[in-house]
């Protein structure tokens, strides 16, 4: 963990764990019967994620609330997201301290050959505990140590994991406004001493959603980013109003960055390999491919040199530094699009909706992959108080 300090690049994980260390040690004291004494002084932590918040967004529009928070706190200079840079794997990394290969949420769309089940972030399969139980999220760890936690829509936080939910949580519902999520969190932190939470997680879908629709380089994104800054301002103001701002450590971060795509940069797998030979498990920019029985070599051979804008790996050859290999849910073949490129089966595949009218300027985007250093390190994290 300390290695990142030396290299000058600590992930948000690092900061979450740094802030939680004192929390853990207090709880150790608690077990020796000093709980009463400590409840009031327990350090508190609120972890906030704005999905898909690229590191440079705060520099392209006025972002007074972000800048003020940075000034009062600490800004991490360099963040490396966990591979693959998608929403579920990275949000679970943030609350488990583990790479995806170790926590088991290896993608947004998965297949587990032992369970013989598929998982998709778009379906109720996310409520099947077995997907999440290769690791223990912080809210469970904290509760087992005698603390209390509250979760407002953080991925996985409304799923029963190792027999537990957060003490307080909201059922996932994308229509619930950021402001009501904040109000809930504030309520939980400011409850009477024995009821109050020590650790809170708060998730917001933007600017990811707009980024995917508009493209991170679109000028229309400016308004969205400015809106996020206002939301941060709202959060800080509510914390102050509830007299929590001085008491609660705050980490603001994100799960991944975003790279601009182009309708001229599309790779159609159908041109290279028949769909009959494999199942498409997870989508671009890192595609999970499950070859049909005994078709691994054939599928790999057809793809490996097919297109210079994609990198094709057999599972055992995925570069070590990605820490993305040792899990049965990682597919036998993964294909990584080079930055700016999109992999689809053909141009009418569902993911292509944003390109349906090619006369429009490019309006589709996706997360960037880790290998693309400049755009993918992005993510911000800072700590106040
Ligand atoms: C896996 O599940 C599918 C149905 O979803 C079923 O058709 C198939 O037989 C199962 N495979 C095994 C090996 O159990
Ligand atoms: C989701 O939230 C919206 C807005 O608060 C509400 O109108 C809707 O009923 C909720 N949906 C469910 C399924 O609870
Ligand atoms: C493209 O894929 C869709 C399904 O995603 C299929 O219905 C359609 O026939 C395919 N088109 C071509 C030209 O292969």
Automatic annotation (TrEMBL):
InterPro entries: Alkaline_phosphatase_core_sf (IPR017850), Phosphodiest/P_Trfase (IPR002591). The keyword Electron transport does not apply. It comes from the Eukaryota. The keyword Transmembrane helix applies. This is Ectonucleotide pyrophosphatase/phosphodiesterase 5. Residues 1-26 form the signal peptide. It comes from Labrus bergylta (ballan wrasse). The chain crosses the membrane at residues 358-383.
